[in-house]
Amino acid sequence: MIQIPLAVYLLFLAPLTALAFGFFILRPWKPEWTHIPILISCVVVTISTAFLAAFVYSGHGLDGTLFRWMMAGDWSIVFGVRVDGIGVAVLSMVSLVGALIHFYAAGYMKGDPGFSRFFLFFHLFYLAMIGLLVSNNYVQFYLFWELVGACSYFLIAHWLHKPTARRAALQAFMTNRVGDFGLMLAVLLILARYHNTRFAMLYTIAPGMAPELLALSGFLFFWAAAAKSAQFPLYFWLPDAMEGPTPVSALMHAATMVTAGIFLLVRSWPLIGSVPGLPNFIAAVGAATAIGAALLACTQKDLKRILAYSTVSHLGLMAFALGLGQVAAALFHLVVHGFFKAALFLCAGNVAHGSGKPTVSVDEAGGLKRSLPLTYACFAIAAMSLAGVWPLAGFYSKDAILDAACERGPWAMAAGLAIAMGGALYISRMLFLTFFGPRAEQKPGEHVHEAPLIMILPVALIVVGAFSVGWLGRHFTHLLLSGWPETVPLPVLPELSAKVSGMGLAAMGCGVAISYVLTMRLPSFDWDWRRRHPGLEAAFACDLGWRKVVAWFAAVVVRGADRIGRVFDHEVLDAAIEKSADACQKLSQTGSSLATGSLSDSLWWLMTGAAALLAWAGLR
Amino acid sequence: MSAHWLTMLWALPAVGGLAALAGGRHSRWVALLVSAGTLIYSFSFPGGAVISSSPTGPFGISYSLACDGLSLSLCWLTAFLTLICVIASWKKDFTPGYWAAFLFLEAALLGVFLARDLLLFFVFWEAVLIPMFFIIGLWGMEGRRKAAMKFFLFTFFGSIFLLIGSIALVTYHHAATGIWTWDMAVLKGPSGRAGLAVFAAMAIGFAVKIPLVPLHTWLPDAHTEAPAAGSVMLAGVLLKMGIYGFVRILWPVFPQLTWQLLPWLGLAASINVIYGALCAMAQNDLKRLIAYSSVAHLGFCLLGILSRTPEGLLGGSIQMINHGLTTGTLFLLVGFLYDRGHRRGLGDYGELFRRAPWMTFFFGFTMLASIGLPGLNGFVGEFMSLLGMARALPIFALLGVVGVTLAAAYSLPAYQAVFWDAPGKGSVSHLVTDLDAREMALLSVMAGLMLLLGLYPGPLLRVMQPFLLGLVP
């Protein structure tokens, strides 16, 4: 029997208690207080996580069972916990950033009519992600994976009166379901064959698995991750999902949702990494996603949409790193990205909050650095971190990936540099367009005001992380390798090399310079090309046509269902069956018209029958 | 245990039905007390097999009942849903016949799940039709007459096959062994062509009840036209009779044949899953939509029990209970909605989250259980069934997972149309008020059970296990 530390129980019990208390007591009684137990729970979870991080850092690990969930015969699926380097590394970021976003949300959502509902779903979302990170088998992982999806559905649609929000929520859930298809099928296949999905067991089984099963389940895992972590071809739901309130976007993009897919790949890496060709495929898809999304981010006008495409791009970069075999670098970037992306989203939220709108486009921004000085400072630091300015966090994590790319070969190097340049380009464009100016085309609101303290302080704290987390690289590696190590040793973060860093900084400089010229030297450029080339803008608006393909596919399914469900089932099949009843009735009417009841008729029939029988007997 | 204890289980609601008929104004109290009493009484049986049997009569016919974990859990479901139905229809001014019909229905259903003699089983099987026919035909919606007739004729048509098959089975068994018996546990089917014919006849009888595509077209009409409580019993319990017949009779009687026919039956079950989901996607009427979703869910049950692996058999069986709970709750909710707005169309409502937040909550919760969100009950049965199939024939598991994906595609848009979207012209949303205390209490119990069975199905699985594990080859 393994001793499970109290901190592990607290990870579940604190949020569950807060949710139960909020739902059963505060929601009917004082809905505007719902956030109080939830914020307390966030603090408890963060402290527990810090304890667990120290626990793992000092060389401990944990993989234990809590209770049996499903069983049949001698076989069962358990509910368990696994506290190891990988899980805790991500968990530390998720719990800390998530908790700070909770505090921010308490300010941002104040006065919203759905305040209590929002906080309950928000915290359940957080709980689901934490559960996912400490699951010890795939079925339990799937439970939290789906729960994350369901919570995001209700949170994206939080403002139910907005048709776009409702549509985005449906699209997000359906796309995720299409991805879940892969996860569920892979889990079923592995479970059917090996009767076990505990990660600890699987890691030892994986090398000896049947190659077909290995390849198939590896691919299916990637398919699932592509939906959750917004990789091509299933990325399109993520930019639309920014219809939800800003804290939801921040939580979803930084901490709780999209990182789940990358985490699935990391968890399954002993399996995926041993499929020949699959890592290269993942790297290629990741690079394509990253470059394409960076390009699209440069063409977007809505602030949150720019950031959403930026998330897609960074997730692509993580997948790219994973595909190169750099698990540690991918995870490190995931953590760093969590910090700066949360900060960027919350700053965008402050801009929107200051302008009194749910979301702001660059047309309504410009010159905001005067009216929003604190937000501007936070945004600028987080943006520099994203772009990879030395010595901010983004520099270190990106550099580790670039290093691996340069070792792989010229193509990977070119892709890595293109991603680095693209990232710098779109984020500095956003910075310049939003906070500098205003330009002739921009109409910032009259009374844009700075956000209250409860919305500035969490952002500032997250920005501290976005600034400094990069220096913890060596400790991060140590965390990953200690505790409950993987059977397949993880590659460690590479040491900085001057050549690679120089190239990365040069690419970043290029991106910033280009955006500086296009936004500051040619202030109207962003509006000019749209006016001159409406066709080009339309192409970018539908993501170079991919959105049309998806819409066509959805329409085909719906029309097909309509054909089957309404036309075939009702008008053909059911009609035919009902016709058969009519036919019976016709037959019986014909028959009954023969039964006239008169004695002579009956006698005639009797004699005819007898004659027929005799004739039949005679012929025999 | 004495033979009569089991008899009392089905006789209690039957006698109660007679009392309700005579009860006049008090008949709904009779219905409430008797259905509650039956539920409590049904909990007094242990999970192990209890058999009571009389001496055999001519041709080996005997009055024999048996109750093991599988029967018992279905009896619990029947008794529980009957009580729920009685409470759900409480406020309505029904004639004594209505309350009596539900008690008679309960008695017949309990008889089906308890019978061990094949002929007795058939008698109860047919007896179920009569109260249901009246429930649909007398207290249903506008198209009730036609729907009741269609329901009766369609299922009666299936029953004829079942009867012919049963007689043939017993006759063949006598020819082979020289013993006349109708005991399900003893009967063994003939081999070869004859076996196939007998199997097919009985399978058609059960398939109409499940219902298996293309024998399903009675179901949408019957569910739609039945009163709310009638739909609950229809979807919650009546459909399970078909699956129960497969597990209880066909599997032990034809152990080899079911194995050989697995690809065909699996194909039929997979078609059910996908065809039901696609049909549900195309519906505009909430009740029709839920009815078609039942077709899909029962496909999962069949996929599970077909696999004949421990997890598949248990998954298919627990899916019966889970489907009874979730779909029953969905029909209850639609009934509550219909009581207020007198419409069932998706386009007739909108923005109900403003006027009826609790209804929105419970509908959303139940819908998530119905589409198999893990942590709620629907997932356990689906997942275990598909797992069983993944071990037997993985291709059908794949089709099943496609069905899981499609489940969201018909549930969520319907949910959004009724509860979120802006109401269209002619909407009756303004008539809708939120749930009252009685309805809240009912739905809270259901939701609590969904959560409990989703996270901790172990005790129920253990109750069902003994008989089912015996079917594993």
Topology:
The complex is a heterodimer of chains A (620) and B (473).
Chain A: H1 6-29, H2 35-57, E1 62-72, E2 75-83, H3 85-108, H4 115-134, H5 138-156, H6 163-194, H7 199-205, H8 211-228, H9 237-240, H10 246-256, H11 258-267, H12 269-272, H13 278-299, H14 303-323, H15 327-355, H16 368-371, H17 373-387, H18 393-408, H19 410-435, H20 453-468, H21 473-481, H22 498-521, H23 525-532, H24 534-541, H25 546-594, H26 599-619
Antiparallel strand pairs in A: 1-2
Helix pairs in contact in A: 1-2, 1-4, 2-3, 3-4, 3-10, 3-15, 3-20, 3-21, 4-5, 4-10, 5-6, 5-10, 6-8, 8-11, 10-15, 11-14, 11-15, 13-14, 13-19, 14-15, 14-19, 15-17, 15-18, 15-20, 17-19, 17-20, 18-19, 18-22, 19-22
Chain B: H1 3-22, H2 27-42, E1 50-53, E2 64-67, H3 69-88, H4 96-114, H5 118-139, H6 144-177, H7 192-209, H8 218-225, H9 228-253, H10 255-260, H11 262-281, H12 286-307, H13 310-341, H14 352-355, H15 357-370, H16 377-392, H17 394-420, H18 437-455, H19 458-469
Helix pairs in contact in B: 1-2, 1-4, 2-3, 2-4, 3-4, 3-9, 3-13, 3-19, 4-5, 4-9, 5-6, 5-9, 6-7, 6-8, 7-9, 8-9, 8-12, 9-12, 9-13, 11-12, 11-17, 12-13, 12-16, 12-17, 13-15, 13-16, 13-18, 13-19, 15-17, 15-18, 16-17, 16-18
Explain how this protein is built.
The complex is a heterodimer of chains A (620) and B (473). Helices cover 75% and strands 3% of the residues of chain A. Chain A is mainly alpha-helical. Chain A folds into 2 domains: 6-541, no CATH class; 545-580. A two-stranded antiparallel ribbon of chain A has the order 1-2. The longest helix of chain A is centred in the last third of the chain and has 49 residues, at 546-594. The model of chain A has no long low-confidence stretch (mean pLDDT 89). Chain B contains 19 helices and 2 strands. At the A-B interface, β1, α5, α6 and α25 of A face α6, α11, α13, α16 and α17 of B.
